[in-house]
Amino acid sequence: MKQLIACALCCLPLAGAGLRQDHQPLKIAVRVIGRGRVPAGTAAFAERIVAAIFQKAGVAIRWVDCDVAGACQGEPGGRELRLQFLDRFPGVLSGDAVGFAVLMHEPGDPGYAAVSWPAVLRLTEDLEVEPSAALGAAMAHELGHLLLGHTHTPEGVMSPKLTRVQLVRAARGELRFEDAQAEQIRAVIRQRRE
User: Fold this and answer.
1) 126 vs 40 pLDDT, higher one
2) How many whole angstroms separate alpha carbon 3 and alpha carbon 139?
3) 14-38 pLDDT tens trace
4) Which domain holds residue 12?
5) Of 14, 79, 118, 177, which has the fewest Cβ atoms less than 10 A away?
6) Which residues have a Cβ under 8 Å from the Cβ of 48 and sit 6 or more positions away?
7) How would you classify the pairing of strands 112-116 and 26-33?
8) Terminal CA-to-CA distance of the chain, rounded, Å?
C-alpha cells in the first residue's frame, strides 16, 4: 500500500541541537533521477545543503547520479533512497507543494521521494530566495519522510511549511532535524541492511 505525502515550503523557526561530534556518522546513498532537469550548479549546492542537514543528524550521504549510464542498475539496497527531480508537478497535490514522498509498507522497499523543479522556482520567486536553498530544504524534507514516515514538527526541516527565514538558514547550513528525529533516523538506518 502506498501513502502519498505532500509537503509545502512556507513557515516556522528552527530547532535541534544536532549530533555530538564524537559519533561516527552512518552512511546512506541517495539515487538521484532526473538531475539534468536542474541547473548543475544549483543541484550541486542543494545536495550540499541536504548533506549538511543530514550530517548534523549523524548521517553521511553519498549521491548517485542515475542519469549516468549504468550508475543505478538493479534495485536499491537497504541503505539507499530514491529521489527524482520532476519537470512538472502532479496535479493531485496542493498548489503550494513542491515535493512528495511515497512510503511503502513492504519490507525492504525504502519508498520514493520527488521534488518539482518548476514548483521550487515559483516558490523562490514569491519568497525572493535562491532556488538552491529551497531545493535543498525540499529534498531534505522529502528524504526525511522516507526515514521518519508521515511526520511533521512545528520547527526544523520537517515543519510542514518553511518561511524565507528558514530557507536562508538552509543556505547557511543552519537548518536541522529535531534531536528526536535525528535519533529516529539513525535507528532506522541501523536497522537496514547494506
Assistant:
1) 40
2) 18
3) 333 444 444 678 999 999 999 999 9
4) 2-191
5) 118
6) 136
7) unpaired
8) 24
Model pTM score: 0.85
Please give the single-letter amino acid code of residue 9: L
For residues 140-152, give the mean pLDDT.
94
The grid coordinates of residue 60 equal: 553521511
Tens of pLDDT, residue by residue over 45-88, are 999 999 999 999 999 999 999 988 788 887 777 789 999 999 88
For residues 135 and 72, the model is more confident at 135
C-alpha 158/C-alpha 137 separation (Å) is 9
Quick: pLDDT tens for 169-184.
898 889 999 999 999 9
What cell does 190 get? 541501523
Whole-number Å distance between alpha carbons of 94 and 99: 10
Reported in sequence order, the residue ranges of 111-157 that DSSP labels E, i.e. its strands, are 112-116
- Strands laid side by side in the 26-33 sheet: 2-8, 97-104, 112-116, 80-86, 26-33, 59-65
Q: Could you tell me if 71 and 64 are in contact, meaning their C-beta atoms sit under 8 angstroms apart?
A: yes
**Domain count along the chain:** 1
Q: CATH code at 18?
A: 3.40.390
Burial class (CB in 10 A: 0-12, 13-18, 19+), 108: exposed
Rg (CA), the chain: 15
Displacement of CA 38 from its chain's centroid (Å): 15
How confident is the model at residue 93, as a pLDDT?
A: 67
